[in-house]
Design a protein that fits this description.
It is a single chain. This protein is of the alpha+beta class. 64% of the residues lie in helices and 12% in strands. It is elongated, with a radius of gyration of 22 Å.
């Protein structure tokens, strides 16, 4: 089983590529879309496009469903949850650090005014 850290790494690796981000952007707000229709605006071969889809699937950001010869793609919001949690933890850490820095600067300012 893939651990949480590996899931987060897979999500960020998938999002690192502008084509894959474009795929996700194109999928946003849609239900299912055929692979060929999804690939149409991208200037890459269908086999190359399929490789991008595999990376997104492995990161659990999309789901592919086969209906006969049709391959339908849809987003998986759950795939982003671990990455969102990681970002939230980092944000909380930095917020606390910035709050501490702000407090330190205010104390220093008060000391300067007393002098």
């Amino acid at each position: 089983m893939v651990n949480k850290r590996d899931k987060v790494t897979a999500v960020f690796a998938a999002l690192a590529d502008p084509t894959r981000r474009g795929i996700l952007k194109r999928l946003a707000g849609r239900g299912e879309i055929r692979v060929t229709a999804l690939a149409r605006p991208f200037r890459i071969s269908l086999p190359g496009f399929s490789k991008h889809l595999r990376v997104l699937e492995e990161a659990r950001l999309i789901r592919r469903q086969r209906r006969g010869r049709l391959h339908l793609i849809r987003t998986r919001a759950a795939g982003m949850r671990e990455a969102q949690k990681w970002i939230a933890q980092c944000a909380a850490f930095w917020d606390a650090k910035f709050d501490a820095l702000d407090e330190l600067l205010k104390r220093e300012e008060r000391k300067e005014k007393k002098r």
